[in-house]
Amino acid sequence: MISASDRRNWKIYAEESGELASEVVTKAVLSEKIRLADKPLILHADNGSPMKSATLRATMEKLGVLFSHSRPRVSNDNPYSESIFKTLKYRPAFPSGGFKDIENARAWTYRFVSWYNHTHRHSALNYVTPEQRHKGKAPEILAKRKKTLEEAKRKHPDRWRNRPIRNCSIEETVYLNPEKESREKRRD
Hints:
With 188 residues, the chain is mostly helical.
């Protein structure tokens, strides 16, 4: 289970089940005190049997979480999951021959998640770490970056050639699969 900006809650099990999925979702919602007063919390999942189980559905209803499922045979319907798997598999330390056992997989994943949240500057978060975003530090960091870029442009306008400085704002709205109009507006 991943959020759009961090990978704080994760678990590796030897098998999949609705009960285990319910456990992970409950822990994530309760440990992070996830509640958005005016916005629904939505879990987007694949169409595997654990994610469609009655157990998970009951847990979601109890927690007030809405369900969203990938469309059948649409490979890019869950871009956050696809992105994290690519980042994970392209890490230099990722074992090319697979993990020796489940404990080895858990230990490696623990280190990966720590790196991802505390060190990795995430392109979708405008190059702040997920932890900086989670702790509310992103606006201050991005404001400082904007000031630095504006100063650099003022001192060396020839390097910028009528181009604007990099966007130094954080996206407040995250889309799973934005409509064409939304994508075009966000590019502007």
